[in-house]
Design a protein that fits this description.
four-stranded mixed β-sheet; 4 strands; about 10% strand; GST_C; Glutathione-S-Trfase_C_sf; SspA_C; Stringent starvation protein A
């Protein structure tokens, strides 16, 4: 695989400007306080370096010297192990497994509906909006159970969920009053300086920054 010397000599993230899974990785990096080079990517026209590095030409793609990683789940867990402070996964195996399962369900059940609203036809967007609202309401007990998602401290699961909650107004997903706990959950994370660092200009424009 070939790439420019600059990419090979610095931690580099190829990321779309408004992408829920790319945002997930940028939030992990921000929570860790890690410096990196960000290369904005138009997924419909990937740069030559990305084409050379990743056979799927997908984002997010992380380059750490000779290591190239893609898929948000793989990149996020690598970063948590590569930069262990602060830890973003619990210590005990049971809690770690529960969070991994929750993140898997987000990837398979939630993210496709976000993408359908953003990039699908009107019918696909309407169906995605409806289903995403249903999934959020069904998850209310999990949001109520702890300060963060299934965990007393912020974890990789929150890095996956917060970008979805951030986008709800722009996706046209209006939650009922009984779901205010989800907005409260989001605001606890959105006020964190690390969260603000994770946002691209395009993502900042999606909603007002909570005070």
């Amino acid at each position: 695989m070939a790439a420019s010397p600059r990419i090979r000599n610095a931690l580099t993230l190829f990321s779309a400007r408004d992408c829920v899974v790319c945002h997930r990785v940028r939030l992990v990096l921000a929570a860790k306080g890690v410096s990196y080079d960000l290369i904005p990517v138009d997924p419909t026209n990937p740069p030559e370096d990305l084409v050379d590095l990743n056979p799927y030409h997908s984002v997010p793609t992380l380059v750490d010297r000779d290591l190239v990683l893609y898929a948000a789940s793989v990149v996020s867990e690598y970063l948590d192990e590569r930069y262990p402070h602060p830890p973003l996964m619990p210590v005990d195996p049971l809690s770690r497994a529960r969070l991994r399962l929750a993140m898997l369900r987000l990837e398979h059940d939630w993210v496709p509906h976000v993408q359908a609203v953003q990039h699908g036809t009107k019918a696909q967007a309407d169906a995605g909006r409806k289903r995403l609202k249903e999934l959020l309401i069904a998850s209310l007990p999990l949001f109520k159970a702890s300060k963060f998602f299934l965990n007393p401290e912020m974890s990789l699961a929150d890095c996956a969920i917060a970008p979805i909650v951030w986008r709800l107004p722009s996706l046209g997903v209006q939650l009922p009053k009984e779901a205010k706990v989800i907005e409260d959950y989001g605001n606890r994370i959105f006020r964190n300086p690390a969260y603000l660092r994770s946002l691209t200009p395009e993502e900042r424009a999606l909603r007002d920054i909570p005070q």
